[in-house]
Amino acid sequence: MQHDKEAKNGSTQENGIMTGSRNIVDEITGHRRMRRNRKADWTRRLVQENRLTVDDLIWPVFVVPGENVVDPVAAMPGVNRMSVDRLVEAAKEAADLGIPAIATFPNIEMHLRDETGSHSLAADNLINEATRAIKKAVPGIGVITDVALDPFTSHGHDGVLRGDVIVNDETVELVARAAVVQADAGSDIIAPSEMMDGRIGVIRQALDAAGHQNVGIMSYATKFASAFYGPYRDAIGTGGLLKGDKKTYYIDPANGTEAIRDAALDVEEGADMLMVKPGLPYLDICWRMKEAFGLPVFAYQVSGEYSQIKAAAMNGWIDGERVMLETLLAFKRAGCDGILTYFAMDVARHLDRKG
């Protein structure tokens, strides 16, 4: 009799939820069901908000002296230091895959390093040799170069060390001169990472005075005093050289507002693009920077981020390819226009296969 009574009322009870004319889920949601757009692959593709493409990738590479050198970086599985000739071959492959740009970092001989990083000013140094070779062989790929002094100093700091102090103004003078030398060699974008005050404006003036008005500046606008840089320092040979730490010129990881203030100064001084480094731990900074300034924003997925993914994947703890893609997509969702990542070639090959 109870069943007949419910049937007359046009409703039944299933696991405590009313169905038929009175569905408690529809009453709660107002007939709005988020899962409708998730029900099939084709609907999920139609409503996807962010996409990772090869156009989002910048490939950081390590350059060493010599010929026919491909030297694996032990702390970064799958990453190699390459001599200029082998780097040119790699740049050709990157261009063929559609990667827009590479960022070069040198590991020079120890006898060329000194207290002031003076070899950074040599027109024929390793970074400039690589730039000239790449632009000659692969003119369609962008070359981004850093003017920080750490690959050239005997103490591993990004600037000139006087006593226990990294001196700001003398460092700025040197990196501005190095920027002109790098632009003379064919660098398309100067990316100063040493975090000295006033460097963007001085570099812009120096480039313009030398006739390099078309050379851009991608500012390391917010480079944090992070623990994620270790494998990179090994790759460029500064890991064992560093005296002290870099907290007097890198940003405290606790300070988001300071980071945005720092970026604002770079914008005022003429930066064309902004970078957040490291990447994933600072997605909030990526978002705030994009919202605040509207300039192209890039994240650097640094060596420690890369290596922890590779190590976990090699141990079978995670699906390395899926995590790689998920982390890079997170940068896009946070407002980034692109990502510097050691995964660039892997991602480009994946997208090429998928496409």
UniProtKB/TrEMBL annotation:
<keyword id="KW-0627">Porphyrin biosynthesis</keyword>
<keyword id="KW-0456">Lyase</keyword>
<protein>
    <recommendedName>
        <fullName>Delta-aminolevulinic acid dehydratase</fullName>
        <ecNumber>4.2.1.24</ecNumber>
    </recommendedName>
</protein>
<dbReference type="InterPro" id="IPR030656">
    <property type="entry name" value="ALAD_AS"/>
</dbReference>
<dbReference type="GO" id="GO:0004655">
    <property type="term" value="F:porphobilinogen synthase activity"/>
</dbReference>
<dbReference type="GO" id="GO:0006782">
    <property type="term" value="P:protoporphyrinogen IX biosynthetic process"/>
</dbReference>
<feature type="active site" description="Schiff-base intermediate with substrate">
    <location>
        <position position="277"/>
    </location>
</feature>
<feature type="active site" description="Schiff-base intermediate with substrate">
    <location>
        <position position="223"/>
    </location>
</feature>
<feature type="compositionally biased region" description="Polar residues">
    <location>
        <begin position="9"/>
        <end position="22"/>
    </location>
</feature>
<comment type="similarity">
    <text>Belongs to the ALAD family.</text>
</comment>
<dbReference type="InterPro" id="IPR013785">
    <property type="entry name" value="Aldolase_TIM"/>
</dbReference>
<dbReference type="Pfam" id="PF00490">
    <property type="entry name" value="ALAD"/>
</dbReference>
<keyword id="KW-0350">Heme biosynthesis</keyword>
<feature type="region of interest" description="Disordered">
    <location>
        <begin position="1"/>
        <end position="22"/>
    </location>
</feature>
<dbReference type="GO" id="GO:0005829">
    <property type="term" value="C:cytosol"/>
</dbReference>
<comment type="pathway">
    <text>Porphyrin-containing compound metabolism; protoporphyrin-IX biosynthesis; coproporphyrinogen-III from 5-aminolevulinate: step 1/4.</text>
</comment>
<dbReference type="GO" id="GO:0008270">
    <property type="term" value="F:zinc ion binding"/>
</dbReference>
<comment type="subunit">
    <text>Homooctamer.</text>
</comment>
<dbReference type="InterPro" id="IPR001731">
    <property type="entry name" value="ALAD"/>
</dbReference>
